[in-house]
Design goal:
The complex is a heterodimer of chains A (about 400) and B (about 270). By secondary structure, chain A is of the alpha/beta class. Chain A contains 16 helices and 14 strands. In chain A, the strands form three sheets. A six-stranded mixed β-sheet of chain A has the order 3-4-14-9-10-13, with helices on both faces. Chain B has a nine-stranded parallel β-sheet with strand order 5-4-3-2-1-9-8-7-6. Chain B is an alpha/beta fold and about 270 residues long. Chain B is globular and about 50 Å long. In chain B, β7 (about 175-180), α9 (about 190-205) and β8 (about 210) form a beta-alpha-beta unit. The chains are: A alpha/beta (about 400), B alpha/beta (about 270). Bound molecules: pyridoxal-5'-phosphate. The site of pyridoxal-5'-phosphate has 21 residues of chain A, from α5, α11 and α15. Pyridoxal-5'-phosphate binds near residues 201, 359, 362 and 387 of chain A.
Chain lengths: ~400, ~270
């Protein structure tokens, strides 16, 4: 599919769950009836005004939507280029964008009569959001989390336990997010009738990438209206970090057909792309099949999945959602990267300049922004998705800032 | 021409018994020991071999086969070497059906057409690819059938009604009934649930049906071979490998022999029923 011949970028997926060559339903037969029933239930919900009404109710009264679009005035002065706005999804209940998706899927699970929920989590934000929704809707909750992440993100593990979720530390493979997802899928295969799997990002088998995108698109819809109100026009650029890509898809999707808007997805470059120790699947990976979909993956030439490396547990994933893979192929979105070091500097900078402690994930977006924004004209306007708050990261980040004399 | 798979089932049937299929991961714990293990399996009475193509992220496998896969990868196993191992097996054992089993990504990276050509040339009889449901038939199933390979389908306790018909539409060789909803090597199914499911499958296809996942003991193997046309054993076999690697990581040279003894106990139990 050539960019020149596409009338719209809001066309995926097709009925087989494909975005170009990406996406699909690459799962074991045990899961197929389930995935088909999730799709059917989602289609029914999409046509049911009552579902929409419930979702809006919880978005407003429980999550606290709409989240503000905030003009980051001091950072704008500091960078000396384009005007920088933050879409403040870190102010959502539970402190990240993840809850937008979780409430949608939890409501769907309830419609389907499921009483037990499974989730995978990296940074723990999706796990916390899922545990929260399960407390709210009286559902049983089991969260799979890489053993390494259980240590890196301890405050979130404590929150999940307090909320009543059972946290399973995963020690298979590399003990991070990809293994947590393997384990969650294995658990689902063993408990197909009773459990609903709430996937935390725009990845996995169809219809998850589409469904999660739709639930997160509230970010971009609000941002568009809010920008019209604030500046009377569309932004010139959007920037968001990418783990699996849900906060990014949520912001980007409503703008995909606004050709004047440049879009940047920021992958985690870890120690640097050249070091080989990174999590940038588009920049440094090749198409392959994992976790139910075809997409760009970090892998060996023999097709064995490689370890991702990032200081941020939420970006430490060797794949990326299939719609991003397609947007990369057709050239609509620019995929760039920021290193651990750039994210750390941005983490401190944002705290000091704006009084906002960002999560390590959006610190990557800000790390990239700090190279791009100073180069842009002052009459340009940029929206960055501040998709999570950084309290969970203090344990990992503070010693590193101390070492660098940034405290 | 009747293929090796069909012949094997027919022969077993005429002897009044089910078949015994055995899974091992190619290259586990090393190429040499694995090749010797394959010989020991045939010697011990395995009717059919399922050779696992190691993958780093085996979504439908339990700890035992995950570990087997990782051991093989760590020992340097690749799909190229697996195909070579298959070709050499075929030279030594002209009649034993050989199935390659695994996940799609290594095949996709190798190149689908090159893989199919090599597999056919190696004398492979069929493929079981866990993460390719009928919805993805264009990826590998259709070209594999065109190349002359059987595309063997897994059906599970969740495969019912119209879904079962869909799954069996292009099925070749035999039907692999996964007797539990779950990953390999975890729990075992009860006879009644197997019986009912096998009856459903027989209503939808004339292919032989074998039962697998969770079979460990000679009694279970014998029972599965009565309820269906045979039994497949995997985790219990690769656990013997795991239990015969010392703390320094050196595998015992007796692994093929030990696996042979175990498999022979399964084969005898099946033959006795
Ligand atoms: C705050 C935050 N941002 C981003 C991510 C990455 O996920 P995604 O790319 O799906 O937004 C995570 C994941 O845990 C997160 O917690």
């Amino acid at each position: 599919m050539d960019q020149a011949v596409l009338n719209s970028f809001q066309i995926g997926p097709d009925e087989d769950g494909r975005f170009g060559i990406h996406g699909g339903r690459f799962v074991a037969e045990t899961l197929m009836p389930l995935i088909l029933s999730v799709e059917q239930a989602y289609r029914d919900a999409q046509n049911d005004p009552e579902f929409e009404r419930q979702l809006r109710y919880y978005q407003t009264h429980y999550i606290g939507r709409p989240s503000p679009l905030y003009f980051a005035e001091r950072l704008t002065k500091y960078f000396g280029g384009a005007k920088l706005y933050f879409k403040r999804d870190e102010l959502n209940h539970t402190g990240a964008h993840k809850i937008n998706n979780v409430l949608g899927q939890a409501l769907l699970a309830k419609r389907m009569g499921k009483t037990k929920i499974i989730a995978e989590t990296g940074a723990g934000q999706h796990g916390v959001a899922t545990a929260t929704a399960c407390a709210l809707f009286d559902l049983e909750c089991e969260v799979f989390m890489g053993a390494e992440d259980v240590v890196r993100q301890k405050p979130n593990v404590d929150r999940m336990r307090l909320l009543g979720a059972k946290v399973h530390p995963v020690t298979s493979g590399t003990s991070t997010l990809k293994d947590a997802m393997n384990e969650a899928l294995r658990y689902w295969v063993a408990n197909p009738e009773t459990h609903f799997y709430i996937i935390g990002t725009v990845a996995g088998p169809h219809p998850y990438p589409e469904m999660v995108r739709d639930f997160q698109a509230v970010i971009g819809k609000e941002a568009k209206e809010q920008m019209m109100e604030a500046e009377g026009r569309l932004p010139d650029a959007l920037i968001a970090c990418i783990g699996g890509g849900s906060n990014a898809m949520g912001l980007f999707y409503p703008f995909l057909d606004d050709k004047s808007v440049d879009i940047y997805g920021v992958e985690a470059a870890g120690h640097g792309i050249d070091s080989g120790l990174h999590a940038a699947s588009l920049t440094g990976g090749e198409p392959g099949v994992l976790h139910g979909n075809r997409t760009y993956l970090l892998q060996s030439k023999e097709g064995q999945i490689a370890d991702a490396h990032s200081i941020s547990a939420g970006l430490d994933y060797p794949g990326i959602g299939p719609e991003h893979a397609w947007l990369h192929d057709v050239g609509r979105v620019n995929y760039v990267s920021a290193t651990d070091e750039e994210a750390l500097v941005a983490f401190q900078l944002c705290s000091r300049q704006e009084g906002i402690i960002p999560a390590l994930e959006p610190s990557h977006a800000l790390g990239f922004a700090s190279t791009m924004i100073p180069e842009m004209d002052k009459d340009k306007v940029v929206i960055l998705n501040m998709c999570g708050r950084g309290d969970k990261d203090l344990g990992a980040v503070l010693p590193k800032l101390d070492e660098r004399g940034l405290l | 021409m009747t293929g090796r798979i069909t012949k094997t089932f027919e022969q077993a049937k005429s002897n009044g018994r089910g078949i015994l299929g055995v899974f091992v991961s190619a290259g586990d714990p090393s190429e040499e020991i694995c090749a010797a293990t394959l010989d020991a399996l045939v010697e011990a009475g395995a009717d059919m071999i399922e050779l696992g193509m190691p993958f780093s992220d085996p979504m439908a496998d339990g700890p035992a086969i995950q570990a087997a896969s990782l051991r093989a990868i760590a020992a340097g196993m690749t799909l190229e070497k697996t195909l070579k191992m298959a070709a050499e097996f075929r030279e030594r054992h002209p009649d034993t059906p050989l199935i390659l089993m695994g996940y799609f990504n290594p095949i996709y990276m190798y190149g689908r057409d090159a893989f199919l050509a090599r597999a056919v040339a190696a004398g492979v009889d069929g493929l079981i690819i866990v993460d390719l449901p009928p919805e993805e038939d264009v990826e590998l199933c259709d070209p594999a059938i065109a190349a002359g390979l059987d595309f063997i389908r897994l059906t599970t306790p969740t495969t019912k009604g119209t879904r079962l018909t869909r799954v069996l539409e292009k099925a070749g060789g035999f039907v692999y009934y996964v007797s539990i909803a779950g990953i390999t090597g975890t729990k075992s199914a009860g006879a009644d649930s197997i019986k009912a499911a096998i009856a459903d499958i027989r209503g939808a296809t004339d292919l032989p049906v074998v039962t697998g996942f969770g079979i460990r003991t000679p009694e279970q193997a014998a029972e599965a071979s009565i309820l269906s046309d045979g039994a497949i054993v995997g985790s219990a076999v690769v656990e013997i490998i795991a239990n015969n690697i010392d703390e320094a990581g050196t595998p015992s040279p007796e692994i093929p022999q030990k696996i042979g003894q175990y498999v022979s106990s399964l084969a005898k139990a099946i033959a006795a029923k």
